[in-house]
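SEQUENCE WITH STRUCTURE:
===
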Amino acid sequence: MDAATFDLTGKVALVTGSSRGIGRGFALGLARQGADLIVTSRNQQDCEAVAGEIRALGSRVLARSCDVTDRQSVQDLATAVLGEFGRIDILVNNAGNAATKPAEDLTEEDWDRVIDVDLKGVFFCCTVFGRHMIAQRAGKIINIASVLGLVGEKQLLPYCAAKGGVVQMTRALALEWAKYNIQVNALCPGYVKTAMNEAAIVGSEKVHNHIIGKTPMRRLGEVEELIGPLIFLASDASRYMTGQTLVIDGGWTAE
């Protein structure tokens, strides 16, 4: 297998939640492999900033705000993508959030906020963009789940439920869409250090020690350590792989 197997030149990739953190890393990583990008999040200004970084790498890029919890917003995004690029080859469903509370203190609003973004948003993006992949008879969908979609964790009930749903959605869609040459897989990271979570994780000795204690490698992951697995799933290297979960967690789920 040579480097050309991982080359994404000529491919069009969309990463939701790509204006910061892991999503930004994913967008830049795909661009470095030659893909053209759609950068999207709720904040247009943040999208434009990442788009500038991608243009500097030589890729075409569309920056477009989108609310993945609003089906019409996702459909409008698809119209813009098809108008700009004429196709969609790679969809990375990365947008997400969480509510950290004891289960008995969760409100309906807490539940809806997490489920709407982390699960319903993935459903909307998969089905809206999946139609275009079906018409093309080709596509790669990579759903960003979590180790907490595979095992439980205290005080993260809606997040665990949503990410478990993403894993199952990945399997169901893979079965339905294999006949269209669409591969649907999930990437399940463990705890990864980003600017957004550094205060909550690294800044809290109790939380940090809890995570490190459950991670055999005894450290947090880095965003860059997720990009190689993402490129594998986005490229021809994984063309015979669908309905699977690729776990990058420092050993968290091995026990």
User: Anything to note?
Assistant: The longest helix spans residues 108-136. The first strand starts at residue 12 and ends at 16. The domain at 3-195+223-248 is CATH 3.40.50.720 (Rossmann fold).
